[in-house]
Succinate--CoA ligase [ADP-forming] subunit beta (Thermomonas beijingensis), 388 residues
Amino acid sequence: MNFHEYQAKQLFADYGIAVPTGRVARTPEEAVDAAKTIPGDLWVIKAQIHAGGRGKAGGVKLAKTLDEVREYAKGMLGTRMATYQTAGVELPVDSVLVCEGTDIAKELYLSVLVDRDTKSITFIASAEGGMDIEQVAHEKPEAIKTLHVNYVQGLQPFECRDLGFALGLTAKQVGQLTKIMLGLYRLFNEKDLALVELNPLAILTDGNLAVLDGKINSDDNASFRHADLTAMRDIRQEDETEVRASQYDLNYVTMDGNIGCMVNGAGLAMATMDVIKLEGGAPANFLDVGGGANKERVTEAFKLILSSDKVKAIFVNIFGGIVRCDMIAEGIIAAVKDVGVQIPVIVRLEGTNVEAGKDLLKNSGLAIIPADDINDGAKKAVAAVAGQ
Ligand code: ADP
Ligand code: MG
């Protein structure tokens, strides 16, 4: 689950990490009221969406007067914003963060994540912050510093100091960085996070470090024990179809192709997408209906796939291990009748009771295209789309 910047900063503050004074606002008037409570005469108005890259998209504005605060907040609230990180999707700007404007001397990058190679919580830092860290990693890999935390010892202050000096910080800044890193490490562990990113972690002209941006991603598998985090969920920032899928316990991810896939098992779902690609097609989604697929879930899965008008054919690829193929066939028939599917449906069934399942499909009177195996099914799906 992703968090807004203002929520991330609240969590940082809860863990003793200093953040610039700021308040979230949902109307231009609230933004002005917020600015009045923030000392100084420079404010930053920041669109709250689940994506970075807002600066370049007009979602971060410096205001020098309260009138400018109102004007910028008004310009952002109620609009939709796409950035280079949203893959063409426009996210609703329902709130803005009004915070203290600061004078920046330099921008650093700091993140915490789980490194799967070393199986450790890892800090990644760079003195070249502010811009795309992927670009820095590509063009100047030596500018990226990595610290793998030993999971028995936990993060040690001396490791933070080493990292700080390697980034070229002064002794005072190294002390501030150590406090930030120890706080982040505790936050990361206690809240079961998957990613924390400070970009930028700024060096201000007065020499102090300041956390100017914060991104947090938490591990959904642990959400059952973090009611405080789930209370912060903003489903308006999430893909509508994926939200609906999660309500039915379906693992669904929207993709940009035109062949809808309905598969049981995550491994088979990935293999199906691969084979579609191999045959020259493009999957419209990843969908794992799960081992316990029944009629209701199959129907719901069809509805989800069909909610996108980009989908031109559906490839159902089911291996009946725990589930029975005849039951899946009944589900498919019911769903196709129920939902009124108008596009070609290609079905490959294999496993328990496969003959009974195939007979049901054949005798259903519906225009379902049977496939012998995964390759045959993918070929037929690609051909069905090409023929339209
Ligand atoms: P995004 O990553 O979505 O573009 P950021 O919060 O990183 O958004 O803001 C973009 C840029 O705006 C930062 O790199 C920084 O230069 C500037 N900025 C952000 N917050 C402040 C602030 N409080 N004071 C001054 N400048 C800021
Ligand atoms: Mg940023």
